[in-house]
Amino acid sequence: MSAKLISGKQLSLELREKLKKDAEAFTRESGITPGLAVIIVGTDPASTVYVRNKHRACLELGYYSEVHELPEETTEKELLSLIASLNEKETIHGILVQLPLPKQISEESVIRAIRPEKDVDAFHPENVGRILLGNYRFLPCTPAGVMELLASAGVDPKGKECVVVGRSNIVGKPQALLLLEKNGTVTVCHSRTANLKEHTLCADILVVAIGRPEFITPDMIKPGAVVIDVGINRTPDGKLVGDVAAGASEVASAITPVPGGVGPMTITMLMKNTLEAARIFAERRA
Ligand code: GUN
Question: According to the CATH classification, is domain 31-115 in 3.40.50.10860?
Answer without folding.
Answer: yes
